[in-house]
Predict the structure.
Amino acid sequence: MLKTTLGRLHLIGTVETISFLALLLIAMPLKYFADIPEAVRWVGAAHGALFVLYLLAVLNTLLVRKMSFLLAVLAVIAAFIPFGPYLIERKIRK
């Protein structure tokens, strides 16, 4: 059960990180430099959904694995930083 919870958090964190980077490095430049605002609309919507899934995965890990509340808060804050979920994952696995 614990492996599944951590594996899910890792997978969703990875996909959420990729969507965040795609939003910052691909969609936003397309919107502002190539006048293609649709890129942000679609990538932004996907990233928003993945962000919510990441928050739910953190909550699930908090409840199932008995992760500390402080570590859960740090995991949420890390989601706002590019590669943030990778930075916090080592602490979560302990």
